[in-house]
Amino acid sequence: MNTDLIDTKRGLRLDRVVLLGRTFEEYRRYFLLEPKELIGKDVLDVAGGVSSFCAEANARGIPVTSSDPIYSLPAEQIAERSEPDLESVYPRHWKCTDLSLELLQNPSTHARVSRACIFHFCVGLQKPS
After folding, report:
1. 122 within 8 A of 75, measured Cβ to Cβ
2. Are 124 and 55 a contacting pair, CB within 8 Å?
3. Is residue 98 part of a domain?
4. Do 89 and 68 form a contact (C-beta atoms < 8 A)?
5. Is 79 contained in some domain?
6. Cβ contacts of residue 32 below 8 Å, gap of 6+?
7. What is the span of the domain harbouring residue 91?
8. Nearest to 54 by CA among 23, 33, 26, 17
9. Quick one: which of 1, 69, 110, 123 has the most CB atoms within 10 Å?
């Protein structure tokens, strides 16, 4: 492994996968999505994590299927694992200015929005298909 690249890489360094909720709007901005162009098209969200993107997109007429290894766990366990990630990551995440969106204003707002995403995700996970 080339450690020179690691030392110069900008951003947040994590030693494991963390569970942070992402909204439809965050996905739209990160990936430059045009929602009108996606209506009626099948979308696959790989490594979707605990985002509310799938639920929000489906509500907008964009058929999204999300896949992630975390989905093998019960919703309660996912929610329990998410909270410590929010507490440990958001204070550091916000310092990475290229990851911060004006949409989310500040770390506490970002964490609140993420918690709402996780809740929305877990409620949807508990519903029978």
Report:
1. yes
2. yes
3. yes
4. no
5. yes
6. none
7. 19-126
8. 23
9. 110
Cite the DSSP H helix spans in 2-64: 3-8, 24-31, 35-38, 53-59
**What is Dmax (Cα atoms) for the chain?**
49
pTM above 0.85, yes or no: no
Is residue 82 included in any domain, yes or no? yes
In a domain, 96, yes or no: yes
Number of domains comprising the chain? 1
Q: Which helix (H) or strand (E) holds 43?
A: strand 43-46
Residue 111 CB contacts under 8 Å (≥ 6 apart), including other chains: 86, 90
Token representation of residue 57: 């997109």
2-49: per-residue pLDDT in tens?
A: 454 444 555 667 777 777 778 898 889 888 999 999 999 999 999 888
Give the residue carrying structure tokens 């550091």. 92
